Structure formats: C-alpha cells, structure tokens
Amino acid sequence: KNINDSFGHSFGDRLLKAIAERLDSVCYKDCLVSRFGGDEFIILLESVRSKEAAAEMAKRLLLMLEQPLELDGIDLHLTATVGIALYPEDGEDSDKLIRNADVAMYKSKKESSGNIHVYNIDDSNEAADFVTTERNIQRGIQGKEFIAFYQPKVDLLNGRILGMEALARWQHPEQGVIPPGSFIAVAEETGQIGALGAQILNQVLGDIYHWQEMGIAVPVAINVSARQFADHDFCRALVKSIHESGCALSLLEVEVTEQVFLGDIETAASRLRYLRTAGLTVALDDFGTGYSSFNYIKQLPIDTLKIDRSFIAHIDSDKTEFAIIKALASMCQDLRLNMVIEGVETAAQQEALVSLGCDKAQGYHFFRPMPAGDVELLLQKQQAALA
Ligand code: C2E
Ligand code: CA
Ligand code: CA
C-alpha cells in the first residue's frame, strides 16, 4: 500500500507480480511458488530432500532477485532473506513447517553473515523467548506498567542538579522493577517502542508540569530510538503532546544516537531542526561507541554531546583517555556544544574531569536513576538551599 501511495496506483501490485515471476522462473516444475502476505513468499520444493539442496536453490533465487529490475522507468534494487525448514524433521504439518521457516527467516534477517538461514532447534527457543517477551510487553503496555525513573545531570564542580534523564523502567506486577536492557531491544524490533515511549513521555510531561507548578523548572531528556525517530510523524506528535501538556518546550531534550543517521542523514537533520525550531534541545547520545563520525557533529543540529562512559572508565590513570577527553572538551568549547560525561563512578574520575575543564556529568558517583518521588525531594531540597 505504501509503495502504491508513493509510486502511483498499482505499482506495488505489479512489483509483487514481477517478483513472483522471477521466483517462478528459477524453480523446478514441481515447485509451488505462492505469496503468503505482505512481501513474504513461500516456495514449496517437493523433490528437495536435503538442507544443502534447499540452500543451493535459495542462493539461485537470491541471485535472480538481485538482478536489476525496471518498472515504470524506475530502477529497483531488490534484496531478500530466506528461511528454510525441512519436512519432516522441522515440522510434520504445514503450520509447523511454515512457522519454523518463518523463525529461520527472522534469524537470517538478524544475522549479518548472509541472507539464508537454515532452521535449527535452538532458533525455536530463541524465538519462543522473543515471542514471550513481546506478549508480556503488550500486557505491560495495556496495564500501564512502563514508567520513568530519573537520573540527575550535575554540575561537576559543585554537584548541583542541572537537569535529568528519563530512563524507562518496567514496574512488573510479579518481578518488580525491570531495567530496560531486557525489554527495549525487543520493543524496538516489534515496533512496541512507539506505545511504550508514549507511555513514558506521558508520565514525564506530567512530572515536568507538576514541578513547574511547584516553581521548579527542570529540563528533562528523553531517549528516542532510531525506530521511533524513523516514523515521519514522531516529531510532530511529540511537539503536539508537549504543547498540550502545558510544559515549556525548552524543558525537553531529545537524546538520539547516531543510529538515527545511518539511513538518510538529511531527513534526520531536518527533523532535528524542526524540533529545535519548536524550542526543544537535542543531544547526541553514546558518543564514541559507534562510528562517531565527526561528520555528524558538523552536519547535525545538536546542542549537547554525551560522551559514553567507556571513554572515562580509567581517566584518572590512563593517558590516552585523558588526551581524548581533553581534545573533545576543547572541541565542544570551540563549537559551543554542551558536553556531558556519562557514567562517572568515582571521586578520582570527577577530579580528573574537572582538571580538563569538563563541567557536566551523570553517574552513580552522584546519583543513580530513581523514582519520580525521590527526585522531587532532591529538587525541593536544592531549591530550599538556593533560596
Ligand atoms: P543510555 O541512554 O546511555 O542511559 C544511560 C545508562 O547508563 C542508564 O542505564 C543508566 O542507569 C546507566 N548509568 C548511569 N550512570 C552510570 C554509572 O555511573 N555507571 C554505570 N555502569 N552505568 C550508569 P539504563 O537505565 O539501564 O538504560 C540503558 C539504556 O536503555 C539507555 O542507555 C537507553 O539507550 C535505553 N533506554 C532507557 N530508557 C529508554 C527510553 O525511554 N526509550 C528508549 N528508546 N530507550 C531507553
Ligand atoms: Ca540516554
Ligand atoms: Ca548514553
């Protein structure tokens, strides 16, 4: 449907037909090529008796699909992934065979090593875990179990709270508070991150508003994953939600990682510009962990660079880390970027960072992420001390 919308009526349908014809042309006479739904096809190879032979056939199919295809004067480059399941060992009926071929296909999508995966029994356990987590997350979203914890960002010199980062937690009815490591990745893959993120944003806006009413204007950063950011409507919906909440737009910061720019850097940049024009600020998170191209810093409208904690783990003793942070601090100063150091755990690290002119940090040495109620008490205390 999306393809039809973008390229004109029936373009997608004709494309599917062209693909089906290509698949059919490679297959033996006794093969059955059928479309399963969406962009998924199933091919039944009746005479094939081994996984090796099936994989050989899959290779030929992929080669054929990768040939350039022209439709309505548009050159298309197709890619595909294949999952293979064999009768009877991988399933004695069609349901089970199709399900396991599907599991194998998802596995091959996840693997970077190739586009073909042959089903094996371990895949099934992995897929079952995934499906269980997905189902539990769904229940959690319905039960409004996803909440925000807050970790303060502090002034390195005096420990004063400058702002916070909202971090997702799952308040599970039986298992207690679950950190994001065990659910964010699944939620991203399934697309549930949209609803989950909305639930957290909702709480964050309520909290900011409540603090605003108490006379405390505290900036809060939210984490936005590449999947959320890729949704063309996300930024507009975010600005609208903040508007409707009555919170000052300038109190929200969006933290994105460079994953957001791996696709189309121009689109990503224009979305960030839109957010900044609306009054929000933008931070580039986990700087130093991926490609960390300086091109991003040059091309992207960002306010803050968050330096990953791996760069300061041994800053009090490691000359290389010291030199890198020194250079980054000087660059941020010249470019008028805020620099926030993540994961400060010791007084020695703090001291080394201060000696390099770093002024903002986050980390267990100052505060761990905590529930809204706890952070509110801290804010009140700080406000009373400053008054
Ligand atoms: P992140 O954005 O890099 O968040 C910082 C993580 O470092 C947090 O883990 C925080 O608890 C942890 N941390 C802070 N100070 C220290 C320290 O001194 N030492 C150590 N060892 N760790 C420290 P957390 O809360 O488990 O979050 C993990 C990741 O999950 C986040 O990494 C972020 O990528 C993702 N995440 C969290 N909340 C959300 C959310 O609402 N939406 C999305 N899309 N992703 C989220
Ligand atoms: Ca973050
Ligand atoms: Ca980070």
What does this structure look like?
This protein has helices at residues 2-7, 11-26, 51-66, 94-110, 121-142, 184-190, 193-213, 226-230, 234-245, 265-278, 294-299, 319-334, 347-355, 372-386; strands at 31-37, 40-45, 69-71, 74-76, 82-84, 116-118, 146-155, 161-172, 176-178, 220-223, 252-256, 281-287, 304-307, 338-341, 360-361. It has 387 residues and is of the alpha/beta class. An eight-stranded mixed barrel has the order 7-8-10-11-12-13-14-15, surrounded by four helices. Helix 2 packs across helix 3 (51-66). Residues 151, 167-168, 179-181, 184, 193, 197, 200, 223-225, 285-286, 309, 343-345, 362-364, 369 line the site of ligand C2E. One calcium ion is lined by residues 165, 223, 255, 285.
Question: What is the topology?
Answer:
Elements: H1 2-7, H2 11-26, E1 31-37, E2 40-45, H3 51-66, E3 69-71, E4 74-76, E5 82-84, H4 94-110, E6 116-118, H5 121-142, E7 146-155, E8 161-172, E9 176-178, H6 184-190, H7 193-213, E10 220-223, H8 226-230, H9 234-245, E11 252-256, H10 265-278, E12 281-287, H11 294-299, E13 304-307, H12 319-334, E14 338-341, H13 347-355, E15 360-361, H14 372-386
Parallel strand pairs: 5-6, 8-10, 10-11, 11-12, 12-13, 13-14, 14-15
Antiparallel strand pairs: 1-2, 3-4, 7-8, 7-15, 8-9
Helix pairs in contact: 2-3
Bound molecules: ligand C2E and calcium ion (CA) (2 copies).
The site of one calcium ion (CA) has 4 residues, from β12.
